[in-house]
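Researcher: Next sequence.
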Amino acid sequence: MLRTAQKSVVYDLLLILFSLFLFFYMLFFAKETVAGMLEGLSIGTLSVVPALFPFMVIAELLTNSPTLSDFLKKRGGFFRAVFCLPPIAIIPFFFGCLCGFPIGARATAQLLENKSITKKQAAKLLCFCNNTGPAFVIAGIGLGFLNSVRCGVLLYFSQIIAAVILGITMRSKDDRFAPSATVAPKGRSVADAIASSALASVKIIGFIAFFSVISALLLKSIENEVLLCILSSFLEIGSAVNKIAGSMLPFVMKLLLCAFAISFSGISVHFQTYSVFSAFPIGRLKYIGFKLLHGVLSVAITFLLLPLLL
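Model: Next structure:
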């Protein structure tokens, strides 16, 4: 108990010091702060949310559908066979692959809230279901930044293959079935789903904008282009890909760095993921560790598939 209290005090002190550092750094570099904020708002409002919002509404309706829940429980044995998770868990995985973050995390949180999956099952599912959507990867990154739809397709499928491999390696026969105390979803009206998704969209824009500012400030003094691109990949995916694509690095290195940034997703997305759970089902450092592994796997798969592109 005493050790936990001491850790809390240390954490609070570090947070205070970091916050004060950022506060005065933002004041000193006010121009860069505003520029980073505008870049984040632009990425959030013009690219990310328009691509996600309609899918967020649909995913909200489906994860709270009693009919779909009952159908998957009876006939969705494929997901149980591949990942050793209840069939209903296919919803977060499907929408996480099709629509992108944080929809996979939101759908997982809904299933956990409905007691359709256990906390342990949610923790495992979360590590491979919260991916970057095809619209952003293929159109935004592939066509928009790398000027190649084929590059976008390669990056997207490398990420999904890596996610499937990660999910299979985490399988455990003890987690094949839904909890016995499952609460049937009550269902939501379209109006409720839109309102909930709109609130989540505002949060997404806020996270992107804030971490774009941090990225602009903390990386301001870094002159090494490779180091700048690598560090950006750990912070915010939109800004990272923008820097990687605009760099003078060889094309193959750009592609591999983009593969890592897409699968790791950046600290900004991880904070968005944390925010959708009332109680996060897995240790935060452990979750980041799995996302790092996802990023490394995606880089390896992209490298192996490069002959199909070149």
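Model: The chain has one domain: 30-177+188-309. The chain has a mean pLDDT of 83.
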